[in-house]
Amino acid sequence: MNSEQLAWLIRRHGVEMTHISHGSHIGSVLSVADIVAVLYNDVANISPKNLNDENRDRVILSKGHAGAAIYAALAEKGFFDKAELKTHYADGSRFSGHVSHKNIPGVEFSTGSLGHGGCVAAGMALNAKLDKKPYYTYAILGDGECDEGSVWEMALFANHFKLNQLVIIIDHNKMQSLDFCEKTLSLSPFAEKWKAFGWNVFDIDGHSHAQLKEALEEAKRVVDKPTVIIANTIKGKGVSFMEQDILWHYRFPHEGEEYDGAVKELNLARPNGVLDPYMEESK
Questions:
Q1: Alpha-carbon distance 282 to 275, whole Å?
Q2: E strands of 58-188, at which residues?
């Protein structure tokens, strides 16, 4: 499986999981899918075989509301049975709406309180530095999450301790909760802010797997500062009627036109070599 195939599967699972559960945040799942796919498929040293290896890389989804993307990626990479994804958000399920590490192999930390995941990631990176461990810590943040003061305290902390094994990836879809980021609390000039805090900064197309891989590999060559990758994305990417529509931050695809339309559009863009796991032809 390549990262493009994994990204498609994350989107397809995300639509199915939120549809079945009537759960929220499909717009965020779709926007972050490429970032998650590249990390788990091509970059992060983490697999079902090294879960207890202290030198494994750490991946934290700080924007925990997009947890369905992580669950889907882990299932496709063999951390647990893909069939269990259908229990997402159901009463008694271990797959909560906001990503949880409880009894879920491959999830490092439960998130949902915005601003926390990046801070925990910085602590993990400091531990790697002090103990001279080789692992990298990757944290995926939302751009609306960057309204939180704890994010900028983390930015100061990571620069002060020269945490070069910390990589923050921001899913910069430019929308948050109920409106556009710039209408809520302006982040501009975003890249310059991070540079002023002493970070190594990449500003890229967050749906380009080539650019994501290049930036993540370049980050490993930085020796004296942390790295932030501002990944410019489209909320709802892959389903035209969800793209750039704030409604899909909380809405799920209802039975009928919405669900059928989303599945049809995704399947029109399905990469070669991938079967739709929810269609009869793949059973």
A1: 6
A2: 58-61, 137-142, 166-172, 175-176, 179-180
Contact 38, 77 (CB under 8 A): no
Residue 264: count of CB within 10 angstroms of its CB: 10
- Go through the chain and tell me how many residues it has: 283
Contact in structure between 164 and 191 (CB atoms under 8 Å): no
- Pairing type for strands 227-232 and 200-205 reads parallel
CB-facing half-sphere around the CA of 15: CA atoms within 13 A: 27
pLDDT > 80? residue 280: no
List, for residues 139-188, the tens digit of each pLDDT value.
999 999 999 999 999 999 999 999 999 999 999 999 999 999 999 999 99
Q: b/e for 8-39, b at 16 or more Cβ within 10 A?
A: bbbbbbbbbbbbbbebbbbbbbbbbbbbbbbb
3-class SS of residue 142: strand
Q: What is the pLDDT of residue 67?
A: 96
Q: Which domains does the chain have, with CATH numbers?
A: 3-282 (3.40.50.970)
Residue 53: DSSP 8-state: -
Q: Which two tokens stand for residue 139?
A: 């944290």
User: CB–CB of 185/146 below 8 Å?
Assistant: no
Residue 247 structure tokens: 């409604």
pLDDT tens column, 107-123: 999 999 999 999 999 99
The CA distance from 231 to 211, in Å, is 9
pTM as predicted: 0.96
Q: 84 near 75, Cβ under 8 Å?
A: yes
CA 107 to chain centre: 12
Pairwise CA distance, residues 144 & 181, whole Å: 6
